[in-house]
Specification:
Elements lengths: L2 H18 L5 H37 L26 H10 L7 H9 L10 H14 L7 E3 L5 E6 L21 E6 L2 E4 L6 E4 L7 H26 L20 E4 L7 H10 L9 E4 L1 H8 L11 E4 L2 E4 L2 E5 L8 E4 L4 E5 L4 E7 L4 E14 L5 E6 L3
Parallel strand pairs: 1-12, 6-15, 7-10
Antiparallel strand pairs: 2-3, 4-14, 5-14, 7-11, 8-9, 9-10, 11-15, 12-14, 13-14
């Protein structure tokens, strides 16, 4: 069958299922499922062959000829394996084809074999790096915290008390200062986009080029994962989930400034908040708030000289010189100021991708999966502007 004939038959199968619904017998459903599988595999083969022909013609037109890439064989010697079997172009194209159920050529099959049979479970290095880069762009808080990439549970030590150096009397005994470290234990919680955010695309995905498909799946999955990660960094409760900066402290007069329910933020409130942040954390201090709070609460404020306390430089915002990070996950009329390097986070594994074909909708579904945990290491490194609710 040609591609148009296959697509026409698949459309007819879909229509039959929709029209007959519960009236269909189990045997009829099994037969249609088997036929659909055969048709989609045949169509994939035709598309792959067409792409290969076009690639050959393109190479000939460029005068490049056909290059056969050689692969290093293992031959039972573990030391003979490439440094990064998941970083080869052949493995990348094999993985991106495999999650679309497209057939692999011989070079791609060898790349899978050289990667110790990890197959679609191991995301290609280039794709993984692009997803992480995109997540950090979409969730800027990840660039501010201390981010680790350690598999499994990890205990992270971070400086707590750091006493000033003292003058030493010559020949006298040296007494160690009472400097201390605090530790943060991170495990890993599995997150995906959730059922309502499952990415679904029609089987036109079969016709996309390798590069176009990779760009699409990186953008879609990274955006969904980034939203969840940033929400957890801000609002995670720490109970059966990561702990965010909202729960870094029990907020009170020593670490927060409260604006009355019916009141409006004042420059004096902001000055008091800055004064609450210990000077040791001031060097890395940054504000984080949502865009509405920045423009409706902070922008109108002026100091005693009638100068605006918010300044703008190259599309970046500053409050009294402190950089401002914008996050939709901070509540309206609230803000945090702190050294967010004192927040530890761990992406235990590269973001993974699962795929499945849905016969009912004749479409492919993709889900991005991340193993993530975070926790503030030192609560005093963060202070909060609070809007009273009553």
């Amino acid at each position: 069958m040609r591609i148009k004939e296959i697509e026409a038959r698949l459309a007819a199968i879909k229509q039959e299922i929709e029209q007959r619904g519960d009236a269909m017998t189990a045997a009829e459903i099994d037969a249609l499922e088997q036929e659909t599988t055969q048709l989609t595999e045949e169509r994939a083969g035709l598309i792959a062959a067409a792409e290969k022909r076009n690639g050959i013609l393109d190479n000939i037109a460029k005068g490049a000829g056909i290059v056969s890439r050689s692969f290093q064989q293992n031959n039972g010697d573990d030391n003979a394996a490439p440094d990064d079997p998941f970083g080869t172009p052949e493995y990348r194209s094999a993985w991106l084809k495999n999650i679309r159920r497209l057939p692999l050529n011989d070079a791609e099959k060898r790349a899978f074999s050289n990667a110790s049979g990890a197959g679609a479970e191991a995301i290609p290095t280039q794709t993984a790096n692009e997803i992480i880069s995109k997540v950090k762009t979409l969730a800027p808080m990840l660039n501010e915290v201390t981010l680790l990439h350690v598999k499994g549970a990890v205990k992270f030590a971070i400086e707590d008390t750091n006493n000033a150096a003292a003058i030493h009397t010559e020949n006298a005994s040296i007494t160690a200062a009472a400097d201390t470290l605090t530790t943060v234990s991170l495990s890993g919680y599995v997150y995906d986009e959730g059922k309502n955010n499952l990415i679904q695309i029609s089987d036109t995905v079969m016709t996309m080029s390798i590069t176009a498909f990779e760009s699409w799946i990186v953008n879609m999955l990274a955006e969904a994962i980034a939203r969840k990660v940033e929400d957890l960094l801000i609002n995670g409760t720490g109970s059966s989930q990561p702990k965010g900066i909202e729960n870094a402290n029990t907020w009170g007069a020593t670490n927060s400034v409260t604006v009355a329910t019916a009141g409006a933020l004042s420059a004096a409130n902001v000055q008091t908040l800055i004064g609450l942040l210990p000077s040791g954390y001031d060097r890395n201090g940054k504000f984080v708030m949502n865009k509405k709070t920045l423009f409706t609460d902070f922008m109108p404020l002026q100091d005693n000289s009638k100068n605006h306390i918010v300044t703008v430089q190259n599309n970046a915002y500053f409050v009294y010189g402190y950089p401002v990070l914008l996050s939709d996950y901070v509540a309206d009329h609230e803000a945090f100021l702190g050294d967010f390097k004192k927040v530890c986070a761990n992406l235990a594994e590269n973001i993974g991708v699962k795929s499945a074909y849905d016969i009912d909708t004749n479409s492919y579904k993709y889900s991005g999966i991340a193993i993530f945990d975070c926790a503030p290491a030192i609560g005093e490194a963060i202070v909060k502007l609070v809007k009273a609710t009553a």
